[in-house]
TrEMBL record:
Name of one Pfam family that matches: FCH
Stretch list, region Disordered: 178-207
Keyword terms, alphabetized: Coiled coil, GTPase activation, SH3 domain
Compositionally skewed regions (Basic and acidic residues) per UniProt: 178-193
PROSITE patterns in alphabetical order: F_BAR, RHOGAP
Gene name per UniProt: ARHGAP4
Protein name per its UniProtKB record: Rho GTPase activating protein 4
GO biological process: signal transduction
A single GO molecular function term of this UniProt record: GTPase activator activity
Domain of life assignment: Eukaryota
Ranges for domain F-BAR: 13-311
UniProt domain Rho-GAP: residue ranges: 492-680
Length: 747
């Protein structure tokens, strides 16, 4: 326990440091936005004041220049500028303009009109653009941070599961060793008195034989339990390692690429727009003051030096604590576990190969989608750059014709010029919105692609290594004996069926969920893609007879058909899992604002359900929550699962519009999936079976061929019923030599 606490403390410490970095990044974005807003405000104030003091000529311009120069001399940016001349390019332009303003010597009516008209409006537009882009960039940054924290949270959950199963494995091994010692002690006692009296040997023979049989059965039982725990531990370790590599890949992708791209998104159009305003200012000054040509060339050079990439690099270099990627997470072995890589040997190989194939298909699809989005993104960016860089001839219309004040006012307020500007701005905002949407898709797709690629590489390496260690033939399963009950399964009353059959969770629910857990957690579109109607009917009929048709192996059944049977069972219940009298209260849950209020409200509602039904609901939603953790591979996040199960579990009240009500039902089901641990009572409050994330295979035999030799290895896990709680594992057989596979008879 102390070791677990140390590991969790280390992980929490790293997570806290990353949260601090993320907070610094968000605050840095806000600070940058405020700085630019202040910069734009200063420029707009400068132009307005200059237009007011144009008539005072040199004296007014000198006072204006001195005012803003004194303001920035005491700033931090000014001190850095004096040290290393490494200012952001927009601020450098601003300094150049102030220096040139000190040389202003003439009053010009056109300048006054341009300063107070077109340029002021453009600065307002840029300020609006900066605020809007800063807000959207911040939202995307927070979303990417949430996704990163979600990946780390999944890593924590996988590590906890791995630690739990590792402890179980160690406990089972200790019990096995104890049973072996008892066996050795019994064996030593049996041979210690070879010369005893015949009469005494006859009296003790039967009790001793019974005792030896008990010890042998105990040894077999604990051997079976140890192998089961060891297999679960291996699977949990694999999930932990995959989550570990995915989390590290997501962190690296976020800090190395996403952060820089988000800064690019924040800078979108700012330098171009500001440069266009300053160029307009330059053109006006050039026409009004030919004597300023030399000074204006200096300003032009500063404007040409506007450098988005350079400014981004300077910003990141100036704040290394916020933008430096953290160290990768290291694998933390638990309780002396020496395995530090994903394994694909023995019974794990087929499952990992199947998962690898699904993941490879998903990776190819997401790679293609991301590439297409990237192409669209580049084309949209070029269109947006062209719109931002387009010339605005009407901005200098004030210099045409007569230079009187009246002519300038009439020319500057031309309706046609304003309409053209409004049209260009509408096109810019429309293109910008489309760009932001595609940029968001690209970031999300690239993040998923990075995590899938990390898992893909690890699984590929494990499978290639596993080929050199050994292989096995398909497993042989024993069929379960049919169960007998006197109530209808599909289309029947769930509570009555449970009472009649003695099952805590219906066999159809347990078997379908177990099948998907073993073979379909990574299956793309699970529960969304319909299965074969013939297979669905075949599986359903078998369950109706009390049989378990899913015990004959993975190759005989389609995953989508098994998922369809599970949905069909819940959809066809005579009494829905959520009775109609509590549906209005369920719908009211979707109107609550905070998650805490929703959880509290749902917990109170579910307490009204019968305990037997609540056990089934707890089992189902724990499984759906686990399934959503593989959404990068199966594309079924909590929202998509809620869309599939909302109509199945909750019936729209009579008299209400299904189109408007169904989204609220789906939102409630999504809340149940995401927060199932906080909503449903635990086993201490509600006894009954709970869903296990890591499930072992049922009774199987494997053919091993590797460095240790070759032969049939029989693993017998005979499921047995123990009252209403569920299935328990039976005893495991011994290793055998070169014996062909057989189907063991039922005991």
């Amino acid at each position: 326990m102390v070791y677990n606490q140390i590991l969790n403390t280390l992980l929490c410490s790293s997570l806290s440091e990353m949260r601090w970095q993320m907070g610094e990044q968000v605050r840095g974005l806000d600070s940058q936005a405020e700085s630019r807003q202040q910069l734009l405000q200063d420029v707009a104030d400068f132009l307005r004041r200059k237009a007011e003091v144009e008539q005072e000529y040199s004296r007014g311009l000198e006072k204006l220049s001195e005012r803003f120069s004194a303001k920035i001399r005491g700033s931090k940016e000014h001190q850095n500028f004096r040290k290393d001349q490494n200012l952001p390019s927009p601020l450098n332009c601003w300094y150049t303009i102030l220096n040139q303003t000190r040389q202003a010597s003439r009053d010009h009516g056109a300048l006054s009109e341009i300063y107070t008209g077109h340029l002021a409006l453009r600065l307002v537009h840029i300020s609006e653009d900066v605020g809007r882009l800063a807000r959207k960039s911040k939202e995307m940054e927070q979303q990417m941070q949430d996704e990163l924290l979600k990946a780390i949270s999944e890593l924590q959950m996988a590590m906890k599961s791995y630690q739990t199963y590792r402890i179980d494995c160690l406990n089972a091994e200790a019990k096995l060793r104890e049973a072996e010692r008892q066996e050795e002690k019994r064996g030593g006692g049996r041979h210690s008195d070879p010369g005893g009296s015949p009469g005494g040997a006859g009296l003790d023979k039967a009790p001793r034989r019974t005792s030896l049989k008990k010890v042998e059965r105990l040894l077999e039982k604990r051997q079976s339990k140890f192998m089961e725990s060891k297999l679960k531990c291996a699977k949990a370790r694999n999930d932990y390692l995959l989550s570990l590599h995915a989390a590290n890949a997501a962190i690296s992708n976020y800090y190395v690429r996403d952060v820089a791209d988000l800064l690019d998104c924040f800078d979108l159009g700012f330098h171009l727009s500001l440069g266009k305003v300053l160029r307009t200012y330059l053109a006006a000054e050039s026409r009004a003051q030919a004597a300023w040509q030399q000074g204006l060339c200096t300003i032009e050079g500063a404007i040409d030096a506007l450098d988005p990439l350079g400014d981004k690099s300077r910003l990141m270099e100036a704040n290394p604590a916020a933008y430096c990627p953290p160290l990768c997470f290291d694998y933390q072995p638990h309780e002396g576990d020496e395995v530090s890589e994903v394994r694909a040997e023995g019974p794990l190989r087929n499952e990992l190969v199947s998962r690898f194939q699904h993941l490879q298909s998903r990776l190819n699809a997401i790679t293609l989608e991301t590439d297409e989005v990237n192409k669209t993104l580049k084309a949209t960016l070029q269109s947006l750059v062209d719109l931002l860089a387009a010339e605005e001839p009407e901005a200098l219309d004030a210099f045409q014709g007569c230079q009187s004040t009246e002519s300038l006012k009439s020319t500057g307020s031309d309706a046609g010029g304003k309409q053209a500007l409004a049209k260009r701005r509408a096109n810019q905002q429309e293109t910008e919105s489309f760009y932001i949407m595609k940029f968001k898709e690209y970031l999300s797709g690239r993040s998923i692609q990075t995590k899938l690629q990390a898992k893909h590489d690890q699984m590929k390496e494990a499978i290639e290594k596993g080929e050199n260690v050994g292989s096995r033939l398909p497993r042989v399963r024993r069929s379960r004996p049919p169960s007998c009950c006197h109530h209808k399964l599909f289309g029947g009353d769930l509570q009555a069926f449970l009472e009649s059959s003695g099952q805590a969770v219906p066999l159809v629910v347990e078997s379908c969920i177990r099948f998907i857990n073993l073979h379909g957690l990574q299956h793309e579109g699970i529960f969304r893609v319909p299965g074969s109607q013939a297979q669905v009917s075949e599986i359903r009929n078998a369950f109706e007879k009390g049989e378990d048709p899913l015990g004959d192996g993975y190759m005989h059944h389609d995953l989508d058909s098994v998922a369809g049977v599970l949905k069909l069972y819940f959809r066809g219940l005579e009494k829905p899992l959520f009775p109609s009298d509590i549906v209005p209260e369920l719908l009211a849950t979707a109107q609550l604002e905070s998650s805490a209020e929703r959880i509290s409200h749902l917990r109170a509602l579910l307490s009204q359900l019968p305990p037997a039904v609540l056990v089934v609901l707890r089992y189902l939603f724990a499984f759906l929550n686990h399934l959503s953790h593989y959404s990068d591979e199966n594309m079924m996040d909590p929202h998509n699962l809620a869309v599939c199960f909302g109509p199945t579990l909750v019936t729209v009240p009579a008299g209400q519009d299904a189109v408007s009500v169904q989204p609220h039902i789906n939102e409630v089901v999504k809340c149940l999936i995401v927060h199932h641990e906080a909503i449903f009572p635990g086993t201490s409050q509600l006894p009954g079976p709970q869903y296990e994330k890591v499930m072992a295979l049922a009774e199987e035999e494997y053919w091993y061929e590797g460095a240790m030799g070759r032969g049939w290895h029989e693993e017998r896990f005979t499921p047995q019923r123990v009252g209403p709680v569920g299935w328990r594992r039976g005893e495991r057989g011994n290793n055998r030599g070169l014996v062909p596979p057989i189907v063991l008879p039922d005991r």
